Amino acid sequence: MIRSMLNAARSGAAEIWAHKTRSILSFLAIAVGSVVFIDAFSAIFHTYERLERQREFSGLARMHIMQNQAASYSSADEYVEPPTFGYEQLKKLREQAPEFHMISGESRSWRNIMEYDGERVVSSVNGITPEWMKRDFGYTLKGRFFTWHDIDEKLRVCVVVRRAPPPPGSKTTRKAYNYTAAYDNLVTHNDLLGKTVKIDGITFTVIGVAEEFPFSKRMESFSGYREQAKLLVPITTAANYGLVRGGGQMEVSIDAGPEAGFDDALRKVNNFLKITFGDGDFFLVENQLEQIRKNMAARLKDAFVTISLGMLAFIAGGIGIMNVTLATVFARTKEIGIRRAVGASRSDIMLQFMVEAVLLGLIGGVLGSALGWLWGVPLKVILNMGASPIKPWMPLISILIAAVTAFAFAIYPAWVAAGLKPADALRAE
Amino acid sequence: MTIHCSDLAKVYEGGKSGWPALRGLSFGIKAGEFVSVTGPSGCGKSTLLNIIGLLDEPSGGAYRLNGRDVFTLSDEERSRTRRDEIGFVFQSFHLLNRLSALENVCLPLRYAGAGGDEMRSRAAALLARVGLHGKEKKTPLELSGGERQRVAIARALANSPRIILADEPTGNLDSASSREIMDSLFALNAEGITIVMVTHDKELAARTGRNIRMRDGRIES
Fold it and tell me: What global pTM score does this model have?
């Protein structure tokens, strides 16, 4: 059997070589299917990989408390000054939900002046708590991070973020980075650890330098949000010295811990807001788990649409192979007769055409995989689309599907070939 | 009796009741005989040869080959019988033009499960036997008609068959080549191989041990 298959493979390869144009046309369609499949595989894999990384890096059971900017009032008389979610409220929430993995309050300002050694640069300030470090901390820290003592005592200490250079070839990102080039220059070229800097004219001691992970190791969140922090200060200090607007108003990121208890955690937070601030709808709790799930479902849907297209391309390729194999059977009817006359059985003939078709499928699959890799890695990088995470099993699966498709679509023509009567086949011209 | 046919009939499909090619033939051929089959075109000679060679199936009657009722054989068994017990030589050679002479001779050996150097050396020896030493790598298109027919004879001998069926083996050859081919066939017959040859050539038929004359699907004498 193995020898027959080897013979059939040798003869099939010779046939494919003898009819190059016909062969190329038939395996091109399969190759297109392969390319689309690999792209879809890598898209699906990428989605799951990101989800896994998100789970490891920042947890999925996330929610975000923020001011309800959409709150509308029908007249000016109805307007109520929104309450402040400040440090006191944060402490209360932490007391009421000790089981939460993280409750991180944060206030921001986008334009602050940082001064060091006579050099003044534009920066931003994030007022934070030690909890900030618990999730999404994509930095290597030199020195130390904030303690609750820093927060409670409103100490004038800060952590400077040294940002990673932008990824190569990304014009947009480079532009965005150039905007804050002065800050980046200052913190990159000066070892600020232990030094004093001025933020909006107030002296701070740099207790830590947080060096951002390079882009290749960076967490890419499903919401597309990327942390843009530069200067980190205790949240209480930021409010106390007026470094951030809103008088201590903060947004709160919560990691409820295990996903299973997320719904209960969400209810607990909503209850807390209702009890603390009344029915005013002043704050929104953004369900990030839901958002992640929706985002992921959308990505998977896209990937499955691509896979369907890949399937269609494979089917088209399969029909092409069936067509070519049928044409081959009719063109080689006499040869079939000769082979039958010298002792080939129906199964020998069937095997010969099946092997030929599967070889075509395999060549198409290999070609498609090579093209898929070319598209997914170097071309996408050149086009600034980000390389697809192509794993070795993806081309292998794609080649396997190509071979199986070719096999399935060759059954009928091979069966027709095997069914020819030797005497009739020999008479064919 | 190597070949034994009784009341053999073949009706081709077409028209209301089909077209009868063989109308009840009964005859026997002993091992080692050289039998020629003659008759005008369309009398059923080739059809008979195809049925004897298991390339076609009769519509009626009985056919025993080496004592076995061929009607009861499966496709696999019929193929094996063709491969191991029968060699074919056709008027138009029926060689595969994209294969070399050696590869053409290898074909029946491959189907018999042979392979490698053993198969190639056997094929080369067969080509040498029919006088084609040194032309193993030539394709049929690079050979003369006579040489092609000799490749076909070498191929027919590949699995050492006991019967050779030749359908107008000299029909496409000049007289010198025809003589060479006939000499080869007579030599094979002298070695004990049964030969059944369809021919139009009465002179050739006269040289064979027995002649079956056909007309309108029947044996005339």
Answer: 0.68
